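Support request from a user on the community tier.

User writes: "When I paste my structure tokens into the form, the page sometimes reloads and wipes my input. The last time it worked, I copied everything first. Here is what I submitted, just in case something in the input itself triggers the reload:"
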């Protein structure tokens, strides 16, 4: 009796593991029609996010963007990176050393162009974002090399935290 139960559990576990390992076609929680995306996105945004394209280095709007705020997936709006984890990698693409949430990006092997790279995809909608490399700064050592075309930016809402106050701008000499 007991033995049967144990075997059953082992078998069940194996099925679960196998189904996970054999998952080839992933479906995403959020999906949009190609038609809608073609209307809503610029041709460049569409090409990068839907056709796994890469924008030319040093051409993206967020490469040297330094404002405080949050970077989102341009397709579904899922928050991906904080401006605090952005750094100048010199690569010509916006680079981040950490994610807002570990699960917000799905990683997979990419063997295109005869290279082995790790592709970074939005976990919500499956939009192609860029690649992950292991040569980032401490403490994570990670470099999320993103396309500006995959990202939207929401500036930090100053009314969110009243720490520095709203009277700051008045009577303060500019340096
Ligand atoms: Zn998305």
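"...and here is what came back when it finally went through:"
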């Amino acid at each position: 009796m007991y033995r049967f139960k144990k075997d059953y559990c082992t078998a069940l576990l194996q099925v679960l593991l196998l189904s996970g390992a054999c998952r080839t076609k992933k479906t995403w929680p959020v999906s949009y029609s190609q038609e809608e995306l073609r209307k809503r996105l610029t041709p460049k945004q569409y090409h990068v996010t839907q056709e796994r394209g890469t924008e030319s280095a040093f051409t993206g709007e967020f490469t040297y963007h330094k404002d405080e705020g949050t970077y989102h997936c341009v397709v579904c709006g899922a928050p991906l990176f904080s401006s605090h984890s952005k750094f100048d990698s010199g690569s010509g693409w916006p680079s981040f050393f950490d994610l807002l949430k570990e699960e917000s990006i799905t990683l997979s092997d990419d063997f295109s162009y005869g290279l082995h790279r790790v592709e970074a995809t939005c976990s919500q909608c499956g939009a192609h974002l860029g690649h992950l490399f292991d040569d980032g700064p401490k403490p994570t050592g990670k470099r999320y090399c993103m396309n500006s075309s995959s990202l939207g930016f929401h500036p930090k809402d100053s009314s969110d935290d009243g720490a520095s106050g709203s009277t700051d701008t008045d009577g303060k000499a500019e340096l």
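Agent notes: The reload is a front-end session timeout and is unrelated to the input. The chain has one domain: 34-156. Helices lie at 2-21, 34-40, 43-50. Escalated to web team.
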